[in-house]
Amino acid sequence: VSGFKYLEDYEVGEVIGTGTAEVTAEHISEYVRIFGVTNPLFIDSEFGRQSRHASIIAPAPFTLSVFAVITGGIDVNTHVGLAGLHDYRFSAPVRPGDTLVGTAQVLGTILTSSSDQGILRLADELKNQRGEIVMHGERRVMFRRRPR
Amino acid sequence: MDLVPNDAASVIKRLPIGIPFPSVGRTIGEGEFSLAVSLIWGTNELHANRERMSKTQFGERLLPGPLVLSFVLGLASTSRMYMAMQDAGLRFVALLGIKDVRFPAPVLPGDTITAVVTMTSARASNSQPGRAVVTLNDRATNQDGKQVCDSTRFAFVEVIPNEDHSE
């Protein structure tokens, strides 16, 4: 018997990860350069200042990437990979200077035709320092099942 | 000077719905892979430990899903979709959400990926004049033609005011 945490070991309602991160203009700027994002919403401070957001904002996949890391907490021994994202909403803009707090909570599991792996359904939620939800949705992560 | 109607309903009629717009291709070499993973403090061994991953079904480190999506949306911005939207008279305000995101095959160091963006629908906002919601499908394939990402996003867009067309 190993100490690994398999799909069956996650309980509905369990918070598998929680964490916090501050968003900086430098981090957004590095991100847009690496991924080749060219929309002025994310790269042009002057455009940002005059926009409805009053500043540049973070691209949604940036927010998603930061969230996935700060809520980590996944057993790498049984984690197979990300299967998908289901109905993800970006309900408020993320701006430089924001401090984000994320939680990932177990919704349930989906068994597939595979006998050795299945899907863990997670309710993801990310809030800013004012308590506004900036991102929420369901993430589906593939895990190994307990060997029989 | 000809006045082109620029209310949201008229602009929507000029949108290229159903037409696929390909991006350029991009090789996610060791450099890009490491930079991207480091940028998000990616210490998970799935993404950071080649030795360990060489013994798995994948044989190599996997690019984290959120970063696959990041590359795909970055590539999408090299397609002519955004110019086509601008030509129709619309610009992006915000990404509202994504759904049905799947990663049917992994992205490994050295892979070359290309995206195709297709606008699948557009509707004018009832409550906010001059604004609309468009739905875009983003699909990416690797060098072997295998699909590595399939995603649907909803974006909030607005009509570009006439004075901004001045140049």
- How is the main sheet of chain B built? 5 strands, antiparallel
Structural class of chain A: alpha+beta
Q: Given the structure, what is the number of helices of chain A? A: 4
Q: Taking Cα atoms only, what radius of gyration of chain A do you get, to the nearest Å? A: 17 Å
Low-confidence stretches of chain A: none
Share of helical residues of chain B? 25-40%
Q: What gyration radius of chain B follows from the Cα positions, in whole Å?
A: 19 Å
The termini of chain A sit apart by 11 Å
Number of strands of chain B: 5
Mean pLDDT of chain B, nearest integer?
91
Q: Tell how many strands the DSSP assignment of chain A holds.
A: 5
Q: Output the strand order for the largest sheet of chain A.
A: 1-3-4-5-2
Oligomeric grouping of the chains = heterodimer
Could you walk me through the main structural features you see in this protein, from its secondary elements to its overall organization?
The complex is a heterodimer of chains A (148) and B (167). By secondary structure, chain A is an alpha+beta fold. Chain A has helices at residues 25-35, 40-43, 45-50, 60-70; strands at 15-22, 79-89, 99-111, 117-127, 133-144. Chain A contains four helices and five strands, in the order E-H-H-H-H-E-E-E-E. In chain B, strands 1-3-4-5-2 form a five-stranded antiparallel sheet. Chain B has helices spanning 8-13, 30-39, 45-48, 50-53, 65-76, 81-88, and strands spanning 20-28, 90-102, 111-124, 131-141, 147-159. By secondary structure, chain B is of the alpha+beta class. Classes of the chains: A alpha+beta (148), B alpha+beta (167). At the A-B interface, helix 1, helix 4 and strand 2 of A face helix 2, helix 5 and strand 2 of B.
